[in-house]
Amino acid sequence: MRDVISTAEGPRAIGPYSQAIRANGFLFVSGQVAIDPRTNTLVTGDITLQTERVLGNLGGILSAAGSSFDRVVRTTVFLKNMDDFAAMNEVYSKYFPSQPPARSTVEVARLPRDVLVEIDVIAMA
């Protein structure tokens, strides 16, 4: 069983992918960047502002799928610059205050729309 999740609480897909897929008790949420879902515009600013928007987008999609941050089991964080790790981590830790999920964080050469951060998650549905 495979369900496509689509919600106005997250930005529309900017390519051939779904916001999230629910399958076999898990929710696979596509990488989110700092696009405001209400205006479909990029949130400009530093890593703190962009990370807040990204996690807000993830939260909206998780909620629409009947899940939440406390059900997230794995995340991947893509940073344009690893020097932003501490600031990103400060925001991230507010969303995962206890028993945080497993995580990988990597620096990448470039992200869609030249954003500073992209995060994807896997959660229990």
Short descriptors:
single chain; 125 residues; alpha+beta; 60s Ribosomal Protein L30, Chain: A; 6-stranded mixed beta sheet; two-stranded antiparallel sheet; 8 strands; 23% helix
What would you say this structure looks like, in words?
The chain is α+β, with helices and mostly antiparallel strands and 125 residues long. It has a single domain, classed as RutC-like (60s Ribosomal Protein L30, Chain: A), CATH 3.30.1330. The protein has two helices and eight strands. The chain has helices at residues 47-64, 85-95; strands spanning 2-5, 20-23, 26-32, 35-36, 41-42, 72-79, 102-107, 117-124. The strands form two sheets. A six-stranded mixed sheet has the order 1-2-3-8-6-7, covered by helices on one side. Strand 2 (20-23) and strand 3 (26-32) form a beta hairpin. Helix 1 runs parallel beside helix 2. The chain is globular and about 40 Å long.
Q: CATH fold name, please?
A: 60s Ribosomal Protein L30, Chain: A
Order of helices and strands: EEEEEHEHEE
What class do helices, strands and sheet pairing give? Answer: alpha+beta
Full CATH superfamily name: RutC-like
CATH class: Alpha Beta
Q: What is the number of helices?
A: 2
Assembly state: single chain
Q: Major beta sheet, specifics?
A: 6 strands, mixed
Q: Are there runs of 5+ residues with pLDDT below 50, and where?
A: none
CATH architecture label name: 2-Layer Sandwich
Q: How many strand segments?
A: 8
- Spatial shape: globular
N-to-C span: 13 Å
Strand content: 25-35%
The helicity comes to 10-25%
- The average pLDDT score comes to 97
